[in-house]
Amino acid sequence: MRIGTVLLSASATAVAAVALLCSGCGPNQPPSHGKVERAFFCCAKCDSLDGGIYGKGPTQSLRTPEAARCRHEWKPVSRDQFKELAHDNFGVDWAKQDPWWSAEGPVRPQ
Ligand SMILES: [Zn+2]
Predict the structure, then answer these.
(1) Separation CA 82–CA 4 (nearest Å)
(2) Domain boundary assignment for the chain
(3) Is residue 28 predicted with pLDDT exceeding 60?
(4) pTM for the complete prediction?
């Protein structure tokens, strides 16, 4: 009984170590972006969305049910495309989100 428990905890440690080593290469990774960057992405494979002002906010991370197993292929999209896709695919009501999302015209991080 005791040996079994030890083996179990040893293998759990091994799994945790692998998960840690592989934290940048698993499925459902966010897009890579600058420390503070205004950018919008759509995954070409599962249609998940990720965008906003990274490092400052607001940001939106919208994931489809497939996202958990997807190694996302993030494609840059425009802010308007992002908002349209989020509304159509995820039912996001932008009027209820941070006012930044509803602002007209080119918006820069403040
Ligand atoms: Zn994806």
Answers:
(1) 51
(2) 28-102
(3) yes
(4) 0.73
